[in-house]
Amino acid sequence: MNWNVITLRTAATLLVALSVSTLGCATFFPDEAPARPAIQDTNLISANHGAADALLTRAPWLKDRKDPLLAATFVDINNLDTSSGLGRVIGEQLGSRFAQQGFTVVEIKMRNNIFIKEGSGEFALSRSIREISQSHNAAAVIAGTYAVARQSVYVQARLIRATDNLILASYDYALPLGPDAKALIASQ
């Protein structure tokens, strides 16, 4: 029997076994969760202007751009009496896009005959849309809700007829829950 061949085979087998076990230990740590890639924010202006454009394409009857529209703060779907910086930005940017498209958008924050909860914006969904829009002679209200999830914010935008609260157009979209979106949600 050739001891050199047996020793060489044993050494090679031992080396392979040691390499596999070392690699296995280096890559498997059951107590550590795998690192998640950071969620990146989207361009809020583009996303919200896209939502306004989608509402416009779903409401072709809205031809008379002189009929006043109201843009309301978007509210937390879990509590229609609360909003955040994100809800205020969404409402503002959708209203801004309608104005850019030639629509008459009434700035209701400038009026003193509507109740505006300090730091929260104007909550069209939590009060009578009909009452608010009649006081401003508005044809429709741009309003909506948002829901915060683990990685996204789900937004439901609506164009609501002022006379009977009928939803004339609706558009749903998601925003990634990146650092800017988180900061806006945290700002009550």
Automatic annotation (TrEMBL):
InterPro entries: FlgO_dom
Domain FlgO: 50-178
Key words, A-Z: Signal
Identification of the protein by name: FlgO domain-containing protein
Signal peptide: 1-26
Pfam families for this protein: FlgO (PF17680)
Native species: Candidatus Competibacter denitrificans Run_A_D11
